Amino acid sequence: MYNLEQLRMFVETAHLGSFSACARKLGKVQSAVSQGIANLEIDLDSRLFDRRTRKPSLTPAGERLLSYAQAILLQMDELDSAVKAMGRQEETLIRLAVDNALLLPNLYIVLSRFESQFPATDIEVVSTTSFDVLEALENDQADIGLTFVEFDFNREVELGYIGSLIFYPVCHPDHPLAQFSEITAGDLLPHRQIMSRSLKGSMPTQLPKMSSKAWYCNSYTAMQLLAEQGVGWCYLPDYLVEQAIQAENLKKMKFSFDHKPWKLSIELVRQKNKALGPALTWLHDELKELLDE
């Protein structure tokens, strides 16, 4: 019966183009590689290489079986990685809950590095509102999260300030409010505001209601798309609307009462008194620097 060593010889020879190169890479003598592949051909009842030329080439059978051999070796490597991860007591799953306004480009870079660092650990990413993130942590439905500061939220989670995010008031260029050179609080009253609201009806304390009419979403992307349709005006993260403003799908509004852009404070949150394994510790440390320049 064929073994993993023979499969590795087969794959490396196909990749490197010679038995001698395969032998050098695997630290074996060439005769051992040649014999190993010959034994594999006997076990598979198929000739894998055409040896009539100076450089061995795959036969049709070899070409067909190569991908299967590669898949077996890949699965074996993943099994080895999982076993080693268990030995290091790495978590099998980490649940990350994020306010959907905080799905920053840097977050995906961090997650990509996490995948390289902890290939045996699965990640579950849930995007929702800050209130729902905090509730998920309380209810043991998430291990770590990113939220905006909610001053009236005093519950059993550990909080840590990591920076702030600029929000701009925007509307469609043809919206009535877009015609104002400067907008007062009174000007906003008759025009619909599009707002973020959690599944249970909680709204961000840092972005209050300023209009008499409102539509509610639990997604800032949905808010942006509605604003681009002229449904109303809203506050949106700067990174999310920069391209839309440049493309003139949205217009930045100038408020008489906003002397500087609104900056919303962001916190890294996790379950209180819960031990952190190696993978969660790494992710926690990386997310602390998410907003660093």
Automatic annotation (TrEMBL):
Residues 1-59 form the HTH lysR-type domain. Keywords: DNA-binding, Transcription, Transcription regulation. GO terms for molecular function: DNA-binding transcription factor activity; transcription cis-regulatory region binding. It comes from the Bacteria. PROSITE patterns: HTH_LYSR (PS50931). The keyword Lipid metabolism does not apply. The keyword Secreted does not apply. InterPro entries: LysR_HTH_N (IPR000847), LysR_subst-bd (IPR005119), WH-like_DNA-bd_sf (IPR036388), WH_DNA-bd_sf (IPR036390). Pfam families: HTH_1, LysR_substrate. Belongs to the LysR transcriptional regulatory family. This is Transcriptional regulator, LysR family. It comes from Oleispira antarctica RB-8.
